[in-house]
Design goal:
Blueprint (H helix, E strand, L loop, with lengths): L4 H4 L37 E3 L14 E2 L5 H7 L2 H17 L4 E3 L22 H16 L4 E7 L12 E3 L2 H8 L1 H9 L4 E4 L3 E2 L2 E2 L4 H10 L5 E4 L7 H7 L14 H8 L5 H18 L16 H15 L1 E5 L13 E5 L1 H4 L12 E2 L6 H9 L4 E5 L8 E2 L14 E7 L6 E7 L3 E5 L11 E11 L3 E9 L2 E6 L2 E6 L7 H7 L3 E7 L2 E11 L4 E10 L5 H11 L2 E7 L18 H11 L5 E6 L14 E4 L7 H9 L32 E3 L31 E9 L4 E2 L6 E2 L2 E8 L5 E10 L7 E10 L4 E7 L7 E3 L4 E3 L4 E7 L7 E6 L1
Parallel strand pairs: 1-3, 2-12, 3-4, 4-6, 5-7, 5-28, 6-9, 11-13, 11-25, 25-26, 26-27
Antiparallel strand pairs: 7-8, 10-27, 14-24, 15-16, 15-18, 17-24, 18-23, 19-22, 19-24, 20-21, 20-23, 29-32, 30-31, 32-35, 33-34, 33-38, 36-37, 38-39
Helix pairs in contact: 2-11, 3-4, 3-11, 4-6, 7-8, 11-17, 13-17, 15-16
Length: 819
């Protein structure tokens, strides 16, 4: 890459440069930008929200609708529906005074092991870009900005603040920058967030070459912002083209940006560029005096919003197996239905990141929804079949404050003073995070936080209790100290530090009232956190009870998957497998029941070693808080699953791209070891996935009849824009018993290449027994290839192959076009 105008203008103007607006380039606090009374610019609130609007104070009482995860939306292959979901989250943000939402996440899961993959749309840059742009367009139609993230190559959580992504320029541009480019050119997000990691040796927020691509090549006119605490050098960040440091108070930009300009270390036009962009954001969001607040394009009642989320959830479900057409369930033939699996009663809606959302309004679990859909004529039995694999909140275990109120007592005290309580409140959580001010104490000072919980135990039992925090934490049970937990290393503020991982101790607790106190002494810091958890010992094996009801039932629905903490920031997985207890549950149930349906509530590619043993497998992802009603409608046939896989499912861990490689001694991840990733990794005949990218069944069947490519209107644009006007006409017949929706996919291969890449797709609704024709417009940017020898973008001439198919591994119908 070549650095452009963002770094080449080194003139310093006059001896007294204009420093007006420098304060705008540094955040005010954990969620707001700074105001400028002189410029008439008010504070703008930036909140995380790929899956819903996050509380400023991480307060469990601040609620928002939980959206389907990025991967769930990716599985819909439906840009119009994704845009509607964006409209919903935009309206939710507008109602909460949010100026810009930190999303979508347009990184790509190079591996199902990445801890934050649930936020990402798909493993393909074209599909990710199309759906990401639709999300951005929907959000911004409501007058709320999208802060699209994280630029770039930010798909590894291990050592994310220090790791270095080493990736060649062709791969970087054709794959990892591609979704961001598509979003900028199509929807123009009002903000772009730079990633924590380094790319080819330089931190993204200080990477002049990367930011030059955004501003100079793409002509991006929005704000380029750091990830939270993602800056460590004033001059490097300012000269690279960063416009805004978050959070505040600013450490490197803000007033220091102005000082660097005054000292001649940064050119004055660079400061003017940043201020102009921040002023433009204020204009766009209606936060500039004299401006007009943007009018939202849509306003929906909460029920209308939830209906969109139900539709999105149902369309995201991917039916992977359906032997003997066991689905949809014929409830007239089912007298006893067994529902087993921990996720049926405690579904997982999201990962354990700082984008965690507390659900708004009623949440109907899959178990409750199935019971409602089954009606009074069907006996629905339930057993979890497996114990939780992670610890629980104290409030989930029935804790009370000392006065008997359900919850815990949270107190903040002055440092070194056990009696001077500055803040006290009963809360319905037992993990708390504060960015900046601590309640009752303020910011930047030492103090103490204390959680007190009481339990009325009916009998003596054994529990494992856990505690953690940003300071030294002490765990006491009935007045006796049983555990001391040291603070975490301070290198990843938004990850390891704020997450406050716990340490545990197993204890025998007596019957009756038991008091548990976690006391944490903390030093001044930008983030403070305290966490308390517990895990009761299992009195009996939950597997036996699940097998017993499965043996009695006419059909069994098993709902298994992830728990919220199993997908998270700052930590990657070691395997794509589900929790071993979930796999044991499926194996045990298939020994006693033949009509078994497995619903997988995990927003990533997972290993399914038992897939051949069961009748049906439905991939449900993290589908948002309407999971239950959507699932019940699909199981009973009121809606049909029409999702397609946005990620490839490997047969085993060893088949994952880049398996066995990781960070070297210099914390560098060599992308070459895992490229090409995704479905291109599985195109060689000797390496096949269990389920291919783009694959999915439904309640009817389709046959691709014909496909013809058209180049009649093709135009060679400037090389950076590729070739426009190329399309494919495809004909498909619904050969099954019911109406349905199919997703037709076009994959293109340039002359001399060995791998096909997704270049277009379209969904078509076809009535049972009828044939429909669909036009697939091929992506103009998909015809480009990067010439690292110096030519930049080129369009290879000659005969291109275009394969129209229904998945990445489907032979489909081959067409040729000459360019």
């Amino acid at each position: 890459m070549t650095a452009g105008a963002a770094t080449s203008e080194q003139e310093t103007d006059a001896a007294d440069p204009d420093l007006t607006g420098a304060e705008l380039t540094g955040g005010l606090n954990g969620w707001s930008t700074s105001a400028s009374p002189a410029a008439g610019i008010r504070e703008m609130v930036l909140l995380d929200g790929p899956l819903g609007i996050v509380s400023k104070a991480m307060d469990e009482r601040d609620t928002s609708l939980i959206m389907p995860s990025g991967t769930a939306l990716g599985a819909t292959w439906n840009p119009e529906l994704v845009s509607e979901v964006g409209q919903v989250i935009g309206q939710q943000g507008l109602e909460r005074g949010v100026s810009a939402i930190l999303g979508p996440n347009l990184n790509m899961p190079r591996s199902p092991l990445t801890g934050r993959g649930f936020e990402m749309f798909s493993e393909d840059p074209f599909l990710t870009g199309v759906l990401g742009a639709a999300w951005v367009d929907g959000v911004q139609s409501q007058g709320v900005g999208s802060c699209t993230k994280h630029v770039v190559a930010n798909d590894t959580e291990t050592e994310r603040r220090r790791m270095n992504s080493r990736v060649d320029e062709a791969t970087l541009r054709e794959t990892y920058l591609r979704p961001f480019e598509a979003a900028v050119r199509t929807a123009n997000p009002w903000m772009l967030m730079m990633a924590y990691n380094r790319v080819n040796g330089t931190h993204c927020s200080q990477n002049a070459e990367l930011i030059s691509v955004l501003k100079d090549e793409w002509k991006y006119d929005g704000v380029v912002v750091s990830d939270w605490y993602g800056v460590d050098d004033t001059i490097a960040a300012a000269n690279a083209g960063l416009d805004l440091e978050m959070p505040g108070p600013a450490t490197y930009l803000g007033a220091r940006f102005g000082e660097a300009v005054a000292a001649g270390d940064v050119a004055a036009p660079r400061l003017r560029d940043a201020v102009e962009r921040l002023t433009r954001l204020a204009d766009r969001t209606g936060h500039r005096s004299g401006g007009t607040a943007p009018a939202p394009a849509h306003h929906r009642s909460q029920e209308e919003q939830r209906e969109i989320l139900r539709k999105a959830a149902a369309e995201s479900f991917v039916l992977l197996e359906n032997k003997d057409n066991v689905l949809p369930l014929d409830m007239s033939r089912v007298k006893t239905l067994a529902v087993v699996g921990p996720n049926a009663d405690k579904p997982c809606f999201q990962g354990g990141t700082f984008a965690t959302v507390r659900p708004e309004g009623e949440v109907v679990t899959p178990l409750e929804a199935i019971r409602q859909a089954a009606g009074t004529g069907v006996e629905v039995l339930y057993e979890p079949g497996a114990a939780p694999s992670s610890a629980l909140s104290l409030t989930d275990l029935g804790s009370t404050a000392p006065d008997g109120t359900p919850g815990v007592l949270l107190e903040v005290l002055a440092a070194g003073d056990a009696e001077n309580v500055l803040y006290s409140e009963v809360r319905k959580a037992s993990a708390f995070v504060w960015f900046g001010p601590v309640p009752g104490l303020g910011a930047g000072v030492p103090g103490r936080a204390r959680i007190t919980a009481h339990f009325n135990l009916p009998a003596a039992t054994r529990w494992t209790l856990g505690a953690g925090g940003t300071g030294v934490s002490s765990l006491r049970v009935d007045g006796s100290e049983v555990l001391v937990v040291p603070p975490p290393a301070p290198d990843d503020v938004m990850g390891v530090v704020a997450r406050a991982d716990t340490r545990e101790v197993a204890l025998d607790l007596p019957a009756g009232n038991v008091q548990v106190v976690i006391d944490m002494a903390f030093q001044p810091g930008r983030v403070q956190a305290i966490t308390a958890v517990a895990t009761p010992a299992q009195v009996s094996d939950p597997l036996n009870a699940a097998v017993e009801i499965a043996a009695r039932a006419d059909a069994v629905v098993i709902v298994i998957g992830d728990e919220q903490g199993s997908s998270r920031e700052s930590a990657d997985r070691t395997t794509a497998a589900l929790d071993p207890a979930s796999n044991r549950l499926v194996d045990a149930v298939t020994e006693v029941a033949t009509e078994t349906i497995v619903v997988v509530n995990a927003s990533r590619a997972v290993l399914l070693p038992w897939a051949d043993k069961v009748k049906a497998v439905l991939m449900a992802w993290f589908p948002g808080q309407e999971f239950g009603p959507a699932l019940a409608s699909v199981l009973t046939g009121n809606a049909a699953p029409s999702g397609r896989l946005p990620v490839s499912f490997p047969l085993r861990d060893e088949d994952i791209p880049g398996w066995g490689t990781g960070l070297d001694a210099e914390l560098t991840l060599d992308y070459a070891a895992g490229e090409p990733m995704g479905y291109r990794h599985f195109q060689p005949a000797e390496r096949q996935p269990r389920y291919a990218f783009g694959y999915g069944l439904g309640y009817t069947t389709f046959e691709l009849v014909d496909a013809v490519a058209s180049v009649g209107t093709a135009r060679r644009e400037p090389a950076c824009f590729g070739v426009s006007g190329v399309s494919v006409r495809a004909v498909v017949t619904n050969t099954g018993p019911s109406d349905g929706r199919d997703v037709l996919q076009a994959y293109a291969k340039a002359p001399g290449e060995t791998e096909f890449r997704l270049a277009g797709f379209t969904a078509v609704a076809v009535v049972a027994g009828e044939t429909s024709e669909a036009k697939i417009a091929l992506d103009a940017l998909g015809f480009r290839r990067w010439d690292s020898s110096g030519s930049g973008w080129t369009v290879p001439s000659g005969d291109w192959e275009v394969r129209v198919s229904r998945s990445a591994s489907d032979d489909g119908i081959l067409c040729r076009i000459a360019l």
